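Let us work through a complete example step by step.
Step 1: write down the sequence.
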Amino acid sequence: MRALITGIKGQDGSYLAGLLLAKGYEVHGLKCGLDDYEGISREIRQAQPNELYHLAAQTFVLGEEFETMRTNSSGTHHVLAAVREHAPSCRLFLAGSSEMFGDVDRSPQNETNPMRPRGVYGISKLTAFLLMRYYREAHGLHASCGILYNHESPRRSEQFVTGKIVAAAAKIKAGIDKELRLGNLDSVRDWGDARDYVEAMWLMLQQPTPDDYVIATGQGRTIRELLDVAFATVGLDWRDYVVQDERFYRPAEKCPMIGDASKARTRLGWAPKREFGEMIREMVTEKLNAYALGTVRPS
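Step 2: predict the structure and record it as tokens.
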């Protein structure tokens, strides 16, 4: 079996590559950019993958709205069109996002929820999702989407709030930093483990019929709970170091973003294995060890 992964160097891509290699796959990573249709076509034609996992995306939008739309929407269109032309029997996975739901009116959310994204990232991912559905229904591609809720790991970048908090706990313990600035500490997210989520991606492409699945833990956690675990891991009280800063506040949400993965549990036999506290403690410990060994330069 041959698999091609876009975004193979990212958190999800690296874990997925390891999972597939352990299963005996020949794994390829897309080398060209998503704006290069000819390059994508060439790589898909040469690799002839049995499975393609489209994980690459522009995540951070600030000042990059046009690039976000080009990468996440047009880039996905390029991948779909190239698969249709050069590897029509290839099974394709698209990494969707809970941000596609946006302004939700109930919690938890499942696959039947209306999609009303509130930002450019969510809009770009929804456009990609609709393009995938079009290619599935109009052109018969075996294409499935995982509507992924927040998922973390020791490989999570500090650009994300989980990575930021974990790194701050380790830096403060190591004497590198003295404070951490955050916004709304009561904001709720459904945080899972990336290693569990890549397994769900693989399971989707093993099904005879393509479909879309919410992948989530079903448990909402506040930023305060995340702080509790992260700072307790290094024996500190976060209240002594955290400063709330209005610059980091986001608009209040009517309902918490919590996913209902019942469909994935029933049809895929998937369930998250790693517990929230265990995951955060592992992230903090690895970061602290990296600072102590000098293998990571504090940002």
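Step 3: interpret the result. Residues 2-151+191-215 form a domain with the Rossmann fold fold (CATH 3.40.50.720).
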